[in-house]
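Postdoc handover notes: sequence design on the structure in folder B. Input tokens:
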């Protein structure tokens, strides 16, 4: 059976294995099929073509339509929090470019227009850069799906450039919090420093996360951001917190009333007591990860395992651990020795 009229076929040779053919509803149109044969006989091929042909053509497709298609696609963010952020920024994008056809982004001058939109948040470098990141992800997807043939918004310049690798909670900082803060805040800080988990993962920890091992116990956690399973050794300090959790309480961390925490409340609760104890305002809940990296090295994890768990490069993980060991007076030289051995051993 011949190809439907107008179908655009592109042959792509892979580094290994047979060539694959990518089929588009029309030249520059949406991709609807991938196969190893030039003329697919599968009935679903024609069904997919018919469905793709219903989509608006590039000339009719407007920027808001592009956003709607993306947010309804499998390429959108999976985690609820990430999707909410993505949707917020892309709806702002759709509103700003509401009268622009999607093909405008094939023109070189569109890069300047996108920068004008990002400049609406120039007062906040982090938001400025986030706006661009979401827009570029949308445009990359649009090219991949054949809605536009190309775009000129790659590698946008960034305003937000901060290195927090040297912002860590030292033992002295933790002692200051533990001396004044209520138990629910002390527990948050302890678990964060012992595990290195992000706030979104901390608030989900339950007794069911604890697993027995031949040498003790560990936490098994599927992380929100990367969707990967992390196995975290339970140190004695962390074990004390887990074992002190009331028998009728499933969650390991709760708010002041014993209810479920939110990410915001966990971060805000620690921030409030940080300020009351007079600690540096640079310290945040996320900065407990540097402390945790050191703990995990001491617990026997390799540098590569720590980097993978934290989502860091090996170099960054080593830098954070080295800095923590040097600024924490109670850390022995053994930490630096272990770090040196880890580097020599190829992590």
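Designed sequence:
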């Amino acid at each position: 059976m011949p190809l439907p009229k107008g179908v655009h076929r592109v042959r792509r040779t892979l580094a290994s294995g047979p060539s694959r053919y990518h089929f588009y509803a029309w030249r520059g149109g949406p991709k609807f099929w991938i196969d190893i044969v030039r003329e697919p006989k599968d009935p679903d091929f024609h069904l997919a073509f018919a469905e793709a042909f219903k989509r608006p053509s590039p000339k009719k497709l407007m920027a808001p339509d592009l956003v709607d298609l993306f947010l309804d696609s499998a390429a959108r963010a999976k985690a609820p929090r990430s999707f909410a952020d993505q949707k917020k920024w892309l709806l702002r994008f759709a509103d700003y470019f509401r009268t622009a056809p999607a093909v405008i982004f094939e023109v070189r001058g569109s890069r300047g227009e996108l920068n004008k939109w990002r400049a609406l948040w120039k007062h906040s470098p982090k938001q400025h850069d986030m706006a661009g990141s979401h827009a570029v992800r949308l445009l990359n997807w649009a090219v991949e799906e054949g809605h536009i043939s190309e775009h000129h918004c790659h590698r946008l310049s960034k305003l937000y450039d901060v290195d927090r690798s040297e912002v860590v909670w030292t033992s002295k900082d933790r002692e200051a919090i533990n001396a004044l803060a209520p138990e629910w805040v002390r527990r948050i800080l302890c678990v964060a420093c012992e595990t290195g988990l992000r706030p979104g993962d901390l608030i989900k920890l339950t007794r069911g996360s604890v697993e027995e091992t031949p040498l003790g116990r560990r936490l098994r956690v599927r992380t929100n951001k990367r969707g990967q399973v992390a196995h975290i050794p339970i140190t004695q300090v962390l074990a004390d917190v887990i074992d002190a959790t009331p028998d009728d309480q499933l969650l390991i961390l709760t708010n002041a009333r014993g209810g479920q925490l939110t990410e915001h409340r966990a971060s805000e609760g620690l921030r409030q007591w940080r300020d009351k104890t007079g600690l540096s305002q640079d310290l945040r809940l996320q900065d407990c990860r540097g402390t945790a990296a050191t703990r995990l090295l001491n617990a026997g994890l390799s540098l590569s395992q720590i980097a993978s768990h934290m989502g860091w490069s090996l170099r960054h993980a080593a830098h954070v651990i080295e800095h923590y060991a040097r600024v924490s007076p109670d850390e022995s030289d053994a930490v630096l020795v272990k770090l040196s051995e880890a580097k020599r051993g190829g992590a």
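Context for whoever picks this up: The radius of gyration is 25 Å. Don't rerun without checking with the PI first.
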